[in-house]
Amino acid sequence: MTFSPFHIAVPDEALDDLRSRLSRTRFTTRSGDEPWRAGTDPDYLRHLVSYWLDEFDWRAREAELNALPHYQAQIDGQRLHFLHVPAVRPAGAPAPPPLLLSHGWPSCFVEMLPLADRLTDPAKYGGDPADAFDVVVPSLPGFLYSDLPKGPLTRAAMAQVLHRLMTDVLGHHRYGAFGGDIGGVVSGWLGALYPEQVAGIHMIHAPFPASFDARPLSPAEQAYLDAEAAYDLTDGGYSAIMGTRPDTLAAALADSPAGLAAWLVDKYRDWSDNHGDLENSFDRDTLLTIITLYWTSGAIGTSFRQYLDFDHNSPRPDITVPAAVTLSTEPAQAGLPRELAERACTDLRHWSEPGRGGHFMPLEEPELLAGEMTRFFTSLRPS
């Protein structure tokens, strides 16, 4: 199975249309006196749209992205976009397993770039060059430049596509997998389905078991599940509409770049470790690079598909490969006890609660995460 180079090339006409739409944005007023309490703050959105229109340089960001090794492969007739970044490693140094880095929603491959840079070239950051990894960063099926596969978009289906990328397309006989959010769940499925090829998995969102029937819940587990259910009452509106009326929402977001920005920025602020200021975690150029990729690829609607198809997911088998968790600090993970993850992972070798870094930890804390991943995956080198 072959793959070919890929370049991001947004037509001038598409950028002209984007600017025209931004210049004609109709803004809302805030609901109540407290900024962000009811969603993306209109005042912040005005500033972001103004910056997007007058100062953000997409062509410069496009050139930076195209300096990286992008490819596309055909898997069962569907296009899959990915980056394949080789390690900067001394000749003759024993190679750690190549790593697959998988993003979640509302993210994309850009989230993984600071992490990938540190993993492929640790010497640039004061690390041991012998610990450099080859890294593969896909756009998950349905995201940006990757097509939806045939059939329901389940976590298992995504894992099957990514496994074929690593083995059939790239020829890796053994590899490690990392992810957060959807990418973390997919990494869990990879470990469960392909233990002979998957050396280990690392996640920032601890996996749940397929069932809690094996033993009674501990007080810590019950307290966490109760707290998570309470939090979902305040945060779950986005997934409820994307899982029940995705086409209605997508029609609005595909027609309004400001609306798209508001929908994505809401989650970047809520789920990151930003201490109340979104731009403590992300600069505007990074946010607008991600938002512009969603806008110009037209993929916001297909990124919702795995929510609509959620009920097609089957119970995941136990994860038997070596596993590691560096726990995100976002509200949905607060208080999650290790014993809950041990119900899903029979070989949980590393558990860390660093106390910083949220849902988008590869962007927020790439140095911390690269260190934890390097220690875990280098420990899995063959003797």
Automatic annotation (TrEMBL):
<keyword id="KW-0378">Hydrolase</keyword>
<dbReference type="InterPro" id="IPR010497">
    <property type="entry name" value="Epoxide_hydro_N"/>
</dbReference>
<dbReference type="InterPro" id="IPR029058">
    <property type="entry name" value="AB_hydrolase_fold"/>
</dbReference>
<protein>
    <submittedName>
        <fullName>Multidrug MFS transporter</fullName>
    </submittedName>
</protein>
<dbReference type="InterPro" id="IPR016292">
    <property type="entry name" value="Epoxide_hydrolase"/>
</dbReference>
<comment type="similarity">
    <text>Belongs to the peptidase S33 family.</text>
</comment>
<keyword id="KW-0058">Aromatic hydrocarbons catabolism</keyword>
<dbReference type="InterPro" id="IPR000639">
    <property type="entry name" value="Epox_hydrolase-like"/>
</dbReference>
<dbReference type="Pfam" id="PF06441">
    <property type="entry name" value="EHN"/>
</dbReference>
<feature type="domain" description="Epoxide hydrolase N-terminal">
    <location>
        <begin position="4"/>
        <end position="112"/>
    </location>
</feature>
